[in-house]
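Hey, can you fold this one?
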Amino acid sequence: MSSSLLHPPSHLPPATALRHSQQAPSILENSPGAISTSAFQSVLSASETQELWTVYENLLLSCLRTGDDDAAHQCLGRLVNRFGDDNERIMALKGLFKEATATDNAALELVLKEYERILQENPPNIPIAKRRAALLRAMGRNPEAVNALNSLLDMSPTDAEAWAELADLYLAQGLYPQAIFAQEEVLILQPNAWNVHARLGEMLLMAARTSDAPKRLTEALKRFCRSIELCDNYLRGYYGLKLTTQQLLNEPSLKASKHTESDEWSMPTSGTLQNLDEVATEKLAEIIRRNSAGEKDWQGYDKSEIAAARELLESHSTTAIR
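Sure. Predicted structure:
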């Protein structure tokens, strides 16, 4: 059994999800289909472990991603048998299965109405509230999804996942100040998450195109630097760092911007920007080279990100990669 079945499926590349789905018949055949809920029987049984139910849930999600509805239904059935229909997490998984197997918008509307009925009876049902927001977004009803997430955050203001989803929704609508605010809330809850720092840097970089460019680019620079400080080989951090330094170096109007002592930001010197640009260039080149060579500890990067990094370096220098 693959150890990656114990990891969140949303973080798995499509090829891994497909491999899990292909393993489903063997895993289901060799794993228990039902476990007694009796405390006495649980003591005597060595079959039930926390990992078993994690595998079933992750296998369910991988099978839904690849269209293996039969195997997904079997996984769901085993989870329902163990935890019951009234378990909030199981209710959300059942809803997700209905979403994935819906054949048209009318079927999705029925799932949405079911979510609303459940929330009327039990408003604090967080898993169902999240599924409702996700379904609204998938149906293109972004304003309603924003309202749903804001309502959810009123109940659970420390839900980092909900804040991150809200930030992405605002970003998709071009509402940069709101997106940045929501992403900063994620950062408060997860201060050492390098991907969160980089994501905030990306939002600031995009927002700099519309207004307040010097301040936002400087803040983006800080976020990307913090990202690679927390994770030395994080490609997106170095990619964002190079984009930001290049923009600051190539636009004299930005370097000439004035700020007062009361400002919370300070534009780096040209020398500092040059040094940071060199660091980003060297590290991106190393990641590309070692990943392409198939070195064991340098795999796992998304192919599209490797391609984007290569294109970025080639656009600025023909000698960066040999």
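Confidence is low (pLDDT under 50) at residues 39-46, 318-322. Let me know if you want another pass with a different chain boundary.
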